[in-house]
Amino acid sequence: TGRNLAARTVGAQATEVAIRAGVLNRMTSLARPQSVRIA
Length: 39
Description:
The protein has 39 residues and is mainly alpha-helical. The protein has one domain. The chain has one helix at residues 10-31. 0% of the residues are buried.
């Protein structure tokens, strides 16, 4: 797939983009360090 959308219809493309954005956000949140206030 790469940079292209596999879906042909606009509705399916919107769903595909939403899924890809969710996956990317999840991967980003897992890689982000957790900050904890000490004082």
